[in-house]
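Collaborator request log, item 7. Partner lab (contact: R.S.) asked for a structural prediction of FAD-binding domain-containing protein to inform their binding assays.
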Amino acid sequence: MKLKFLVIFTIWISLPKSKAFIRQPRDDDPICKEICNIIWEEVPRAFDYTPPVKDRYWSRFQSDILPGCIVYPVDAVDVASILKILTANSCMFAVRAGGTSPWAGASTITGGTSIDLERLIKLEVAATNDPPAVVVGAGNRWADVYRTLDSLNLSVAGTRNGSPGVSGSVLGGGISFFSQHRGWSCDDILLFEIVLANGTITEVTHSSEPDLYWALRGGGNNFGIVTQMTIATFERPLSYYSFNQWNWAARRSIFQALEKDTENMPDGISMIATTIAWHPYSRQFVISERYIADAETTYTSTVYRDSKPEQQSGYWKSTLAMAEKMDRMNPDGYFNLFGSMTVHNDAGVFVKIADVFRKTMSNATTADDIEIYTVFNPLTGPAISKMQKRGGNALGISPEDGPLVERSKDAAKEHGRYHRFIFQNHAFEEEDVFGSYGRENLRRLRQIRQKVDPEGVFQILQPGYFKLGFEPNSVDEDSGTSQCNKGIEEILVKSEL
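Returned to partner:
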């Protein structure tokens, strides 16, 4: 067994219970046991498909879950038809695009209907735009998009791995190789095609539906099933990709340089990502950095570290090649987990986090074939400013917050450098993602959700992934009692494997 951890700082919060506007499904419901046959009669082509023989999910925690049936819609019309059948009978379902969320039930469901979007693979470059936009079906992965655009010397602000599905990463925010200049993945979406809870197929833009457009940029799967997106492209020839690795003793100088670069990212640098890791093969803790630059001369003249790296390499790479290289670090089929924290930019806090990481993870280093690492992702002032375009996104990060760097809580709180934001795409199952967006953004997201999904279909029938919940003052009409569950917060700073 191979177990991977990216982060192990976990927050447990019990969210308010949802108000049941629709009939609550039961495990022994005879209709839901037959729902697959009903869908087959109404949408037969959704079953006329044999998927490739491969792991459907990135993490085995998900792939071990068995749904009642899997349906493969071909277009938004199929999705709408399937959704209408499920909601009319109050039957549980899950939606899968890329399937890279790690925990059981994120995009899977035991015994229910799994709606797999992998046949929604439209991928067209709209040459009428300048620069062109690309129309991307929700069944595509970022590798598919990069492969199409690389030949045109174009790219998009997709994720840094090629394997994640396009729609899930966008709905969670999406960190990119190019976030320094473009913002996050969600910030370059020009149009969403979405199937709402009532089965309506709607096109959402900043001008046509500004509230829903805002909510879809970070609001997760709470508003409908996204079936297609139109994404802004930009000119991008090859990038200079560099990797450096140091021994553990160099961590202080590396983090001092990271603080400096996060505060003022050198011109021509698109990305810096710093990783602390346990390597099971070399049996040691190491620290490494990856850089994306516009040119080799830009990289060598602007990136400087006091400590000489033990390993160093640099290559010219396409966006697809960079993403595939990242994929090799995170292969499918293992028991993968991750979590996320955000802290203000402070080298002293980074060092403290690294030392806590090593002390805590030393307990796991006796296990065979285990990889443990934490990645520090700078969120710079320019990146945050790009998030404000087209009305901004739902993440709750303002220019006044920057610069920020992801990861760890206890050490950050000790130094007064903790920031509330939790990155949805990298969050652990029990983290309060939407609470971390801020009270006003959470309230606005719930109001928009109430407008487009008043019966709570995507809260009740699709339980997987992060849910907005209902307003704490909602009252159960049957019992007359408040459904607000104040919850218990528990911070776990070590993992028992």
